[in-house]
Specification:
CATH class: Alpha Beta
Oligomer: single chain
Helix content: 25-40%
CATH superfamily: Rbstp2229 like protein
CATH topology: TATA-Binding Protein
Distance between the termini: 37 Å
Largest sheet: 7 strands, antiparallel
Order of helices and strands: EHHEEEEHEE
Radius of gyration: 15 Å
Number of strands: 7
Length: about 140
């Protein structure tokens, strides 16, 4: 059975709306900073920190994309952006990170890492795969 984690953008988040292209840009930024870390320590850290290629489905390419593994220890992670209606009638944007059945434990570890990275950058509320919630936004 597939598992999902969510990064919800709350009123005190740095952004209230995020697009799929912005999420892709965050992944490109993640690849860049890990490559620079690898350069500093003289090791190909980028290949270990982001062992995926960003790919787009034929149908629904405006709603989601997936990370396809370039290493044998990993498989697939699905990422999409959507909105849900709140109790007061307004819309809340969220990023959904899904591990399909064929995903490995390595995918789950990387998905958790990516979720934490995105939640921290967006100052969102992270709902992890195990049901726990992490708050990355300023709370009063």
């Amino acid at each position: 059975m597939a598992e999902s984690a969510y990064i919800k953008l709350v009123p005190s988040s740095s952004k209230q709306v995020v697009t799929l292209d912005e999420v892709k840009d965050f992944f490109h930024y993640y690849k860049d900073i890990t490559e620079k870390t690898g350069d500093q320590v003289n090791w190909n850290y980028e290949a270990s920190s982001f062992p995926y290629e960003i790919k787009y489905p034929e149908k629904g390419k405006d709603d989601w994309f997936y990370l396809s593994a370039t290493s044998d220890r990993y498989n697939t992670i699905l990422i999409g952006v959507d909105q849900e209606e709140t109790e007061d009638g307004s819309a809340t944007t969220y990023i959904q990170v899904t591990l399909p059945e064929e995903s490995t434990y390595g995918d789950k570890g990387k998905a958790n890492e990516f979720c934490k990275f995105l939640a921290k950058k967006l100052q969102g509320e992270l709902h992890l795969f195990n049901g726990r919630i992490m708050y990355y936004y300023p709370r009063k």
